[in-house]
Write a structure and sequence with these properties.
With 356 residues, this protein is of the alpha/beta class. The chain has helices at 4-38, 54-66, 87-95, 111-116, 153-158, 169-181, 194-203, 214-220, 222-226, 242-246, 259-269, 286-299, 303-312, 321-332, 336-349; strands at 42-47, 75-80, 103-106, 130-134, 140-144, 160-164, 184-188, 208-213, 231-236, 277-280. 48% of the residues lie in helices and 15% in strands. It is globular and about 65 Å long. The termini are far apart.
Length: 356
């Protein structure tokens, strides 16, 4: 005959098993509901830039594989919505995109600073989007010809180098470095794209390019690297890229000992953790957001996608929603003095995002 304590333990055990079965049932029901919703439907991926660029490239890689991992196996279509450096698409996703789980987007991480700087046309809160994660974590790089004579970290601080600027990061990153760590870059502005700067380096018009995302450089600069026209002379980021570290490329954070300057640089380069960020609009059903998050994570580990990316030279380094939110919190929760100084340096460096 069981004691009173034994009977209580049996009851507790039975209750625990029952709750477990109920939880499993609810989970299966939710999955079935999500699958039923997505079956036969099409998910739209909005890209805040024109076709053919880096953001468009990542969107199309993801679009080709994501449907395998979303319950119900929906189709995917990519829609380009260029304008104001990605601002048009970001505002659309926050204020107008349907909140049913059938629209996602790849945004532009630097717009985080436009929000913090209270740019007048920003209508979104980066932390309120439904984050799927980022398809890559990258670094900005500075590349130089042999003529530049930049062989060591010290050369970066002592030698004057003429570089080509295309607007955006290839203008404001070298300006930031000149202001914060006293590099001596002289920027020749007006080049239409990095693809027009590279031949100019080969012709001897300029000796380098700075602020070039490594995920783009390793693809679009492959021929120039292979022929020895250029090499990477500096990595700008908060954390080392394994590939660049293995090459012994000088690291930005090693070029200054001033702690405040390091904090300003860290604030300014935190967005590189979410350089290819995918989001859903705020307020979509929780079960659909979870399904999209899980599917995005599975897609970026999919052997077929990884093989395709490797063939194309495309870098895939997944950042989870939690990782992205951590980087966003680092930016938004930075001390006010650091934010003020960093934003002022961005303004002086000519970043258009603070004027949009």
């Amino acid at each position: 005959m069981k004691s009173e304590g034994g009977r209580r333990m049996t009851i507790r055990g039975t209750a625990a098993m029952l709750l477990g079965f109920l939880a499993l049932g609810a989970s299966a029901q939710a999955q079935e509901s999500v699958a039923e919703f997505y079956k036969g439907k099409q998910i739209r991926i909005i890209v805040g830039s024109a076709a053919g660029g880096g953001f468009d490239l990542y969107a199309r890689y993801v679009a080709r594989h994501l449907g395998k991992h979303v319950p119900g196996n929906p189709g995917f279509i990519v829609q380009n919505m260029p304008g104001a450096g990605g601002l048009v698409a970001s505002n659309h996703m926050y204020t107008r995109a349907p909140k049913d789980g059938l629209t996602i987007a790849i945004l532009q991480g630097p717009l985080t600073y436009a929000q913090i700087g209270k740019s007048p046309n920003v209508q979104f809160d980066m932390r309120a989007f439904g984050w799927l994660g980022s398809a890559n974590i990258t670094s900005n790089t500075c590349v130089f010809s042999k003529r530049a004579g930049v062989a060591t970290a010290n050369d970066l601080l002592t030698k004057s180098v003429v570089i080509g600027g295309t607007g955006g990061s290839t203008d404001f990153v070298p300006n930031l470095l000149n202001a914060l760590i006293r590099t001596k870059f002289n920027i020749v502005k007006g080049y239409k794209s990095t693809s027009s700067v590279l031949p100019a380096i080969e012709r001897g018009e300029v000796d380098g390019l700075c602020g070039w995302g490594w995920d783009s450089a390793r693809v679009n600069g492959r021929d120039y690297f292979a022929r020895g026209v250029i090499s990477v002379g500096l990595e700008c980021a908060n954390e080392r890229n394994p590939e660049l570290a293995a090459r012994g490329v000088p690291f930005l954070m090693d070029l200054t000992k001033d702690e405040e300057t390091k904090k300003v640089l860290s604030f300014l380069f935190s967005y590189l953790v979410f350089i290819r960020p995918f989001v859903a609009p705020p307020g979509i059903p929780t079960d659909r957001l979870k399904a999209l998050q899980d599917a995005f994570a599975a897609t970026l580990k999919d052997p077929e996608l990884l093989a395709e990316a490797k063939r194309g030279g495309v870098e895939i380094r997944y950042a989870s929603p939690a990782r992205v939110m951590g980087a966003l919190n680092d930016i938004f929760d930075a001390p006010e003095a650091i934010q003020i100084r960093a934003l002022e340096e961005l303004r002086k460096a000519g970043w258009e995002g603070l004027r949009r």
